[in-house]
Amino acid sequence: MSFADVDHLELQHLAGGNIVEHPPVFSAQGRFVFVRCGLKVQVFVTSTGELTRELYDATEPLISLEVDLRQPELLIGCTTSGQLLRWHWRTGVLQKTIKMQLGDEPTQILTCNLLDIYKGSDSACAFVTAKRKSGQPVAWYLVDTSTGEQYNVNCGLSLKIRTPLVDVGKGAFKYIILAQGFYIYFINYKTWKFWRFRNSDFVPITCVRLCPGVELAASGDQMGRIHLWRLFDKQDTVFSAICHWHHTPVTSLAFSPSGTSFYSAGREAVLVKWNAERPDERNFVPRMSSIIRHIVVSDGNEHILVCTEDNAMQFLSAQEFEVKSALQHFTYSLRDKTGKNLFPIGLRLNPRTNTLVLNGRTGHLQFYSAYTKNLLYNLRVVQSNQQCPEADKLIYNTRVTRAAFNIDWMATGEVYNDQENFAEVRLKFWKFNEKLQSYNLNTDINLPHEHGFKVIVFSNQFKVDNLRCATAGKDNIIKLWSMSASDNIYRPGQTWNCIAQTSYKQMTIGSICFAEDGSLLAAGYGNTLVLYDGRSLLQLQALSCPAGYDGVLAKAQLRLSKTLVNGTRKELFQQRQQLMAILKTLLNSNDAELIEQAKTLINASPKITAERLEVPEDTRKESVYKYIMKMSELSLHQKLQLLRRFDIQCSVSETHRNRLVEHLQRCLAPTQRLKELDAHLLRLQQRHRFKAKHQLDQLIRRRQKYEKVVKQELLPLFSTLQLDEHTKAKTAKQPQPPASQTQKGKGLKVPPAPLQGLAQISHVQFGAGAQAHLVAICTESRVLIWNLMTLRVQAGLKLSVTQLAFDPLTNLIAVITKNDELHVFQLNVPLPIYQRSNIPKTNGLVWLPRRQPRQSSINLDWQAQSTLLMLTQNQEIVYFAEPGQSPSDDAPAPMSFGSAASGTESLLKHATFGSYLIKQKASSNSADAANSKKSGPLIVGRGTHSAVNALVNLSAHTMPAMSLICNEFIKSLLTPADSLDTRLNGNGDDAGLTNGKLNGNGVAHSDESDAEDDQDEEQQQEQESLQVRKTLMEQNAKLDERQIGLEGDHLELDAKLKRIAALDIHLQF
């Protein structure tokens, strides 16, 4: 089956997107902030952080975004290809798209800054820098943003190759500051005169900024220095002052509107406020969430916006100089010089709230809701300060490497390893706090494993009774943890303790997994699947597949018959038996006569009539070597002994030679491990020191015996490989190959064959429900499924798995291979349900249960119960969905007030206590079901009054969220136009829907009832009110028609309002 022909799913974006790559822009009054995120522009409210509007019209990344000076509601953006976009950002309407007229050759726009120059246009002109080809100098232009035309300017400024740093002054001083490398330029864009200066010590400049109110400029360099420039309009009278506090390159600068102070930031995650007149006076905001990338100050000095590299925007008060609020939708992990994985825990699912958990800031875990697309909170796991990076040093921080989740508990593993000292490893257990809606630390365990963790897993995700946790470390030991009463009188309660530990034949562990009920624990040691009792770690079974079935070892066993087979020559058989006897004798002796007999027999050939030519000695040795290496009856040690007896030396490839030398050095040289154990004795208590010293002495004796055997028996054999003490690998002469091989392979380097070893299990996963007896394991090139009922391999797939995710609701397994392919299958039927190639590079997979599962077979819709989410290396969460489908389609159905009879129950079923009340009322209402059909609806009256009563009569504790009620409630209060016309025309269809013939108990009246007169009056009043509503609707329609012709008047009114707003005067005290 070809899935590409029937695949209609598209890769859609769920979370992520960098909002701090470019500096944000404030509106004229500072009430809104504009943020560039990919191809869209987001508009946020500064006071609440609410997203009010998104502008999607850009087709390429925006390199600049600014608000026009004279039209505060006009937003102008520029793309890398020179396309100008003009938005009316309050309405979200794209007014115009303009292409810059910079020539016929393709041009890459580098910067675009608006100037206070209009030249008769309705929008400002822009100072644009661009590059046509790689390696060419940067060109600059003056462009009209309303027409895209280029203006000729009489200025002799010529730029270099590097991308410039540009800032523009739009206040009383009309200057452009531009920096390239260690040169800085000041340009007066009124007279178009420029001045060039050089930074001190030829240090490259990293950022520049102009003060909006004073003739003052600032530049920061890579040494952390800040230069303040004054009187830069003259080459001789320029004044420069140096302010130095940062020890890392300056990342951003910003001035206050008055110019009395300025702000700076480096890579120390500290915001510094300087006094422009007295630089010695400084204020600090230390320990920001991450490295500061941009600093933006609003025009009225109400807000200071700081963008940090963890994808957050933090608002500070200019007067109090402290953080007031933060805006963050998805936390980014920072890349460092260590080259380690940014997301070591991958993508996890918290079963308590079905939120996504992944690494975020250094030492933190972020909890993200995929249902609402909101970041819930960042949990600080590591209780230590983060060390800021340095230019010439490699800085290590404590990282959260593993995490596991239960409905009430969370386990985390953190490691600090600077590659010099002993690794600091901590295992922490956290309990969920209902009041705080967060996790509190319960147990902190130091050094549970050596060097770090491999896997942490709970025995059950949804049960708390008899809960256990298993950890596997890089020391290849599995430890089982359980809760017990705390012996601390100051902190009563339950804590976690180790109850058992185990290992298997000192083999490398790859992964562990609990069964669904927690009774079994499966561990992958090498190519062996070991089953333990989940309560005591008692070994039950050790399963290994046949040789070669795991896809790593390819063995072929050849068995020779001991008796003569038809067609076998008797003399050859006898010759082989004689040669085998001689070789066995040579293993224990060094007889020269036997060696010559063996050479003769090996080089002997069947009798021929022609005369035999003399065979050269090198050719005879080569034939002996080939014959010995083909003998499957001998081990490698025996083969090396025979080669030594025949005085044959082998040529080993450089790769294999280095590996053998390293192995010999580890085996023979004094190991670092013994020194560490000896030093560890001093830190032990006295009662344990004697036992540990005795065990260490025994280990040293065994080590000495081993080294003695190796030097006597093994090292002499390595002379065959030119690796003994008397022959050095670098100076050893390689044996000359035959002339025929030399001519054929001249100038060609044959790569050495890879060393094959045992397969290593990387993933272990139990099934769920009816497939709980199946276990899937993943090796380097295979996926094997074991049946624990028969203890046999049930199926196998040829897949090289890097990521695996299991869905317990549907027993679906999703894997991503090394070739970036997605495969989805079930354990019992390992046939692909879905396949997809060219998947983005991922760091994690997880199945997210749907809030409203679809009633469909998994063969037709494999995401009917759960959605597969992927965390890409671009730090984005994506998923597969049909075109036009969004995650909001999975939201619960909104409330419906259309039916008066079911209005109350439809509201109750969406609340926790409401569902309980429905069940309680079901039994009492079952007896009156027949009468209720005859007596009419539960709520008597008009539809609008029924909706109001259904809402008012709800109890507070049974009422669902207002977001699910308001939409349909307001719609229920409106009357459709077609039904209104029908009722006004006196159509009799609606007469049967009224309750005029029913009393309060739903019992029908007789025709002679006296209530008919009152009913006629009510109907007459209703018709009059409907007539009034119809008249109002007709007038409203006329107003709408007039509104179409008044668009010009509306624009004039907007212009008047802008002029009135421009007259506002802000007083500062």
Short description:
The protein has 1069 residues and is of the alpha+beta class. The chain is 20% helix and 31% strand.
Description:
With 1069 residues, this protein is an alpha+beta fold. The chain is 20% helix and 31% strand. It has 17 helices and 56 strands. The strands form 14 sheets. A four-stranded antiparallel beta sheet has the order 1-56-55-54, with no helix packed on it. A four-stranded antiparallel beta sheet has the order 2-3-4-5, with no helix packed on it. The longest helix has 34 residues, at 1011-1044. The protein is globular. The two termini are 76 Å apart. Mean pLDDT is 80; it is low at 606-613, 723-755, 897-904, 906-917, 929-945 and 986-1009.
